[in-house]
Amino acid sequence: MKAISKMCSAFISRFACRQGAAGRPLFGPAETGAIGKLADGLAHEIRNPLAIIIQGLECLKEGAGPADGSAKTIIKYIEDAAGRIDRITKGLVDFSHPGTPEMSPQDLNAAVREALSLMKPQLEQGHIEIREDFQGGLPQISADKNKLQQLLAILILNAIQSMTAGGILAIKTCFSGRRRIAVQIEDSGKGMPPEVLNRIFNPFFTTKRDKGCIGLGLCMARNIVAMHGGVLEIGNRPGTAGVRAAVIFRWP
Fold it and tell me: Using an 8 Å Cβ cutoff, are 160 and 169 in contact?
C-alpha cells in the first residue's frame, strides 16, 4: 500500500502543476489512464484494511457502556474518518473503472428534474434557490441513464459547494445549434480565478480538500460526456459572478 501511495504521489506531483499551451492541462488519455491504474491499485489496497477497521468499530460500539462517554466520542471520530476513507475509495474505483455505457433514449428535461430531486437535501442544506428554464419539445438523446445522473449530480454538487452562504442555482435546457441540445448549470458563487479554471479537469486537483473532495469529480464528468460524444464547457459567467457549466449533446 505504501509503495502504491508513493508512486501515485510522485506521479501527481510531477504533473499536477504543469500546464500546456494556452493554459490547457497536460493530462491526456495516456496520463489519465496511468493515474486510473494507480488509483485502482490504491483503492484495492485500502479496501481490505478499511473493512477490518469498520468491523472493529462495530464491535467497540456494541461493547461500550452508557458511562463510556469518552470512548464513544473517540469511536465517533474514528468512524467519521473511516467513512471519509470509504468515500474516497469508492471515488477511486469509479474513476478507474468507468465501465461501458448502456445507451438508451433519455429525456434530458426529465433527467435534470430527477437529479434535482435526488440533490434536494444538499440544496436545502445549502440554502440554494433553484431557477428552472426547460425548453419544451427537446428530442431525446442516446445516453446511459445512470452515468447521465452521475454527471448531473457532479455538476450540481460543484455549484452548491461554490455557494458557501446560499445563492441561486439556475438550470436551463435548450437547443444548441444543429442537432445539438444542451443543459446549462449556473451558480451565483464567486467564480474561479484563471489559475484554478485552467486546472479543473486535472485528476486530483481540488480547492475543497477540507470538505473531503479528492479532485476527481470534474475529470469523471468530462469522461462521461466524452463517452456520449458530447462537449463539457466550464467557465466564469460573463459580466457577473459565478460559474457556468454547459453540457452539449448530439441527438440522433
Answer: yes
CA distance 218 to 201: 6
- The helix/strand/coil state of 112 is helix
Comparing CA positions, the residue from 238, 229, 248 lying closest to residue 177 is 248
Give me the domain span that covers residue 47: 2-96
Query: pLDDT over 90 for what percent of the chain?
Result: 49
Under a CB-based contact definition with an 8 Å cutoff, are residues 226 and 213 in contact? no
The pLDDT tens digits for 33-72 are 556 666 666 666 677 777 778 777 777 777 766 656 677 7
Q: Which residues of 194-229 are buried (b: 16+ CB within 10 A; e: fewer)?
A: eeeebbbbbbbbbeeeeeebbbbbbbbbbbbbebbe
Q: Are residues 122 and 227 in the same domain?
A: yes
Q: Report the pLDDT averaged over residues 87-93.
A: 71
Same domain for 89 and 129?
no
